[in-house]
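hiii so um. not sure if this is the right channel but i have a protein structure encoded as tokens and i wanna go backwards to a sequence. like what aa goes where. can anyone help
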């Protein structure tokens, strides 16, 4: 047996390094952390001494596995998942010390049983409601509660995106204007005066994702046109947008009653709690799984819930206000 290593994203492996793995699933019979808390801990928002002491561990695939993340037929290749980081780390230490060279079955058999070939798991489809999101398209995670339409209704699962960023992600739908955050790239139709003030309220905004694809152009005063910029802040029903082109660089927009945001992009960061999610992937509910099961996601489709009565009005919220 050769020495092996994996490539699990650091923020997900932190959960295990923090000593929380035994409390995450129903199998342990111990304290069960809410699924959103699992991701909160994984992002490093909750400090852990253990995380600082142990380097990021990677239980997905062997470092010597040269198979590309996407096979010629379009199938996503996941590699190997290590059920217990502790067992694999102990084996790596023995290997580095020269104490294990595939001769002691008391060591090699547990190590072999600790490995799971993710690609051997059956593919399935899962539907539910997003509870939390962390990370980016490369190695991020989406916590969700499975919907009643499925056999495992109410199950709290964590979908993991492929570390190579090959999981297909789609996020679409409408959201209240409070969805906008500083730095988001948006486009909208408006007419502004020479000082960048819109001459009438604006009711529809389109998010550009990824933001790197935003192509701002110079804004012409007195002409109704499509404007592209970055959100700066929203305060008392007025949205401020920065345009990195031309002479008019700051736009202020009064928001129309019921203003909303149209979302259509491939960035998992656009997903928020309460969104509907459909996932195609491979489910693992055994040792090492997060929550009621880890889904290694090949595809994630998120539908944002349409703005409904009771949503915060634009003038009732403040965003990035200084």
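sure thing!! here u go:
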């Amino acid at each position: 047996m050769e020495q092996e290593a994996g490539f699990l994203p650091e923020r997900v492996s932190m959960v295990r390094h923090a000593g929380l793995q035994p409390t995450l699933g129903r199998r342990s019979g111990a304290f069960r952390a809410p699924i959103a808390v699992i991701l909160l801990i994984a992002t490093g928002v909750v400090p852990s001494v253990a995380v600082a002491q142990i380097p990021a561990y990677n239980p997905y695939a062997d470092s010597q596995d040269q198979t590309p993340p996407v096979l010629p037929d379009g199938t996503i290749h996941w590699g190997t998942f290590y059920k217990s980081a502790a067992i694999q780390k102990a084996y790596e230490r023995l290997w580095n010390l020269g104490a294990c060279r595939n001769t002691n079955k008391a060591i090699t058999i547990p190590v072999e049983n600790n490995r799971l070939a993710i690609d051997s798991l059956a593919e399935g489809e899962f539907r539910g409601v997003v509870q939390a999101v962390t990370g980016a398209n490369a190695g991020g995670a989406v916590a969700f509660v499975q919907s009643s339409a499925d056999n495992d209704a109410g199950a709290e699962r964590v979908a993991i995106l492929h570390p190579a960023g090959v999981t297909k992600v789609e996020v679409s739908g409408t959201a209240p204007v409070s969805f906008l955050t500083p730095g988001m790239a948006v486009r909208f139709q408006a007419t502004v005066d020479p000082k960048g003030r819109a001459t009438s309220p604006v009711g529809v905004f389109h998010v550009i994702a990824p933001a790197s694809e935003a192509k701002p152009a110079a804004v012409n005063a007195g002409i109704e046109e499509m404007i592209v910029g970055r959100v700066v802040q929203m305060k008392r029903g007025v949205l401020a947008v920065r345009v990195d082109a031309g002479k008019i660089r700051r736009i202020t927009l009064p928001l129309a009653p019921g203003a909303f945001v149209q979302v259509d992009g491939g960035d998992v960061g656009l997903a928020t709690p309460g969104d509907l999610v459909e996932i195609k992937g491979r489910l693992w509910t055994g040792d090492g799984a997060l929550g009621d099961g880890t889904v290694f996601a090949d595809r994630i489709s998120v539908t944002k819930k349409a703005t409904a009565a009771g949503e915060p009005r634009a003038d009732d919220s403040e965003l990035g206000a200084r």
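oh and The CA atoms of residues 70 and 76 lie 5 Å apart.
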